Amino acid sequence: QIYPLRDQTLITTMSKAQSRLNNICSQFFAQVEQAPPDAIFGIKNKYSKDKDPSKINLSVGAYRNDKGKPYLLEVVKKAEELLVQDSKRSKEYLGIDGHPQFKALSQKLVFGENSQALKEGRVCTAQCLSGTGSLRVGFEFLAQFFPRKTCVYTSKPTWGNQNTVAMKAGFQHKSYRYWDPKSRGLDFKGMLQDIHNAPAGSIILLHACAHNPTGIDPTPDQWDQIMAVVRARNHFPFFDAAYQGFATGDLDNDARAIRMFEKAGFQMLVAQSYAKNFGLYGERAGCVHVIAPSKQSAQALSSHIKRIIRPMYSNPPRHGAEIVAKVLSTPELFAQWKDEIKIMSSRISKMRHAVRDELLRLQTPGNWDHIVTQIGMFSFTGLSRKQCELLIKEHHVYLLYNGRISMAGLNTSNVARFAKAVDSVVRATQ
What we know:
- By secondary structure, this protein is of the alpha/beta class.
- It is 51% helix and 13% strand.
- The chain has helices at 2-26, 39-49, 74-85, 100-111, 116-119, 130-145, 160-168, 188-197, 220-232, 251-254, 256-263, 275-278, 295-313, 319-329, 331-361, 370-373, 385-395, 415-428, and strands at residues 56-57, 123-129, 151-156, 172-177, 179-180, 185-186, 203-207, 236-241, 268-273, 285-291, 378-380, 397-398, 404-406.
- The strands form four sheets. It has a seven-stranded mixed sheet with strand order 2-10-9-8-7-3-4, sandwiched between helices.
- The model has no long low-confidence stretch (mean pLDDT 93).
């Protein structure tokens, strides 16, 4: 007769304990506040909610055709058709460091077939999740071998995710001067001074081409001077190569800076992305490359990169890498791809001239020549934050608050309206 009472007491005790546990658990995240939205995707979300039929989205760096639609490259379609027809193809896991053929072809694309480092086997490569993933793995790799006090120097301004990724790996970040707001061009003197004044052994993050957000690249002579300062200060160069071929339509020209550093004998990292030049935004195809002092060292460093990737995302996705490998390994497809990237870069160049010419026709106050001297997907307009806010609020033109626009979002149907909106906000804020 006493057991039922004991059981009831036990049940009551357990119920109270569970209630207390539930109360504790419900409070774990009760005080968490809303995080600030991503600068780019936050504006994209505002654009999506805007009901105005003439709205223009210039915030996200994704190519659009002249009808304002996403563009799936014809060569990508052909490659996918060939992959589907391949009866030997599977969906098995890739190795930790990715697709072997994709990695080898990516090395040749960025460093060139005549690369001495490639010939000597001094390049180790891992397939990563496009550009951001390659940067993240690269910085995690550097964090294992550089002192924690080491600082990463990025251009001012730069693509904001670079600084965030460096911080996530435990690095501090500072900036070197890059944009000159007065000339709306490169502050080369300030850039050299800041890189020279950085503590010896710093990590210098450089944009290989089509600098984001300014669209301004150093000349070959200026790259020579940058190399001299980096060498003199024993800095470590890390290239972000997101736009090879997309910037000027010339794969070799857009890889010039990287190849100059490689030829000069630098050890360095390169983060490579196929999002823009292949239009594989959602496939997350990219690589991180490390130029090592020897073949043996490259093999050892590769083992450490694998140890970083394994607990992070285990191994990379297969489909995007197979598309790239098929195109780069098939002469006919490779030739077609080069033609298509020329078409994309040419259309963006035409839009640059169309904007500048329309602003001149409207006699918009200021000098707008920088729009046509910049290259790549983005233009750093020089518009103030207030002017950008007015463009969004009153004209339904969505751009970043620092004045960066994606030229790919402009086309023959909306370029005149965009220029008219810019003219309006410039005059309203004089």
